[in-house]
Amino acid sequence: MEKTDSSLQSNEVGDAVRSRLPRDKRMGFWSNTFVLWGLVLVVSSLLVGGMVGTQLPFKEAMIVILMAGVFNSVVSILIGIIGARTGYTSAMIFRYSYGKMGVLLPNFIIALTTLVWFAVILNLTRDAFVDMMGIGSGSPVLFWAITILMALIFLIPAYKQMKWIAYVDYLAAPAIIIILVVTIWGALDVGGGLQAVISQAPVASASALVVFTSAAGGWLHANTVISDFTRFYKNGKQAALGLFLTYGVLMVFQYIGATLGALATGEWNIFLIMEEFGMLEITFFAIFLGSWSTSMAAIYFGANMMSAPPIPEYKNEEQTRKLVLLISWGIALCFAWYGPDEIFNFFLQFLSWVLGPIAITVIIDYWLFPEKRKLYETKGGLPDMSFNPAAYLGWMGGFLVGYFSQEFFISLLNGMVVAGVLYYGWMRYALRAGTTPEQQLSLLFSGTTPADEGE
After folding, report:
1. How many angstroms separate the Cα of 22 from the Cα of each of 18, 187, 318, 446?
2. pTM for the structure as a whole
3. Residue among 70, 79, 110 at smallest CA distance from 212
4. What topology does CATH give the domain 24-448?
5. What parts of the sequence cross the membrane (predicted)?
6. 211, 57 in Cβ contact below 8 A?
7. Selection from 224, 171, 161, 169 nearest residue 353 by Cα
8. CA gyration radius for the chain?
9. pLDDT for 329-371, tens place per residue?
């Protein structure tokens, strides 16, 4: 009877989107790392790498790719360790810096942009398939039937649980490595060798600093919510090693391979690159696995963001997650109808402007304020604010500076620095005074603090 009750409770908790992940649900190092490889070794990395290759000369492209690898490794490790140590999803972690109600801002932003990512990958995969099968615009019913069928396939593992995502990634990660090898081989074959491919590199059509913002922003989205995956590691050291292998090594090689493919063909879309090689039909299934891996991960943590408090619970944790997941999937289909893949380059930059300030705020709050870190890690530790105005000020300042400084240095870093300075300055001032930014703001405008009002 005791075992049955425990099993029932485990099913109700599921992947624990509203509480700390139980220790018995954590997975081994390689199982977790394969999930990360399935997340990163995917079509989106090939798309970003292809974009770099069509806009920059070879040497500049390599510098941008290496910089993006270092940046993504550092950000993902600093945030990922938090998830491994606490067992919390990103949405639960964000409550400590943004507040119990204030967390709605980052949760909504990340959930919405995640659904756009899902739509981008869905559309690109669908378009390649219908072109390959010769299905034209004159068959709208068949066109959208294929779209919905693919979207359902992308949804199913995320609807089940994390271990089902891992099952798909066991196939997807090796498949995308094969695609990477084929891309490099095809580029060298079609381009006439490495030196010939390099000589075909375009004259810079964009600033290397702007392209870095797109290249880094392409994975900043996943890095900001990487805790949804690293909380399944057994400890922070495993998470750090897995993330380094993923972003510092494999992602860099994938960017380089896609860049070579873009230089050889003039295309940034991996499906079009394979078509130029005359290998789309042969490699489509492997690329499809990569699309599946990216999309199911995106819809999974997008739904997690809006399943956490203060969103009301429906029946239990797992039922709440599944309900929000289905709603998110429907919204993603609406985005697919709109066609966000048509503005892919701008979308990557936009991600960096809106997500960079969120990422740096979370990093600073955990790593630079030891007195707050105890709240994260202590069993039963709760956020000490309902709404943190310092986090909101940092986000608004960072977003505006990032957006309006596109012609100055690196807009991604500009925004993150401003957000970090604003947040750290106000939080440090408040902590030294033995209070919080929320209490300071309330005292300034009403003469009372939230604690006074509670009494």
Report:
1. 12, 47, 14, 42
2. 0.86
3. 70
4. Hydantoin permease (1.10.4160)
5. 29-49, 61-82, 103-121, 141-159, 166-188, 200-220, 241-264, 284-303, 323-340, 346-369, 381-402, 408-426
6. no
7. 224
8. 22
9. 999 999 888 876 666 667 778 888 999 999 999 999 999 999 8
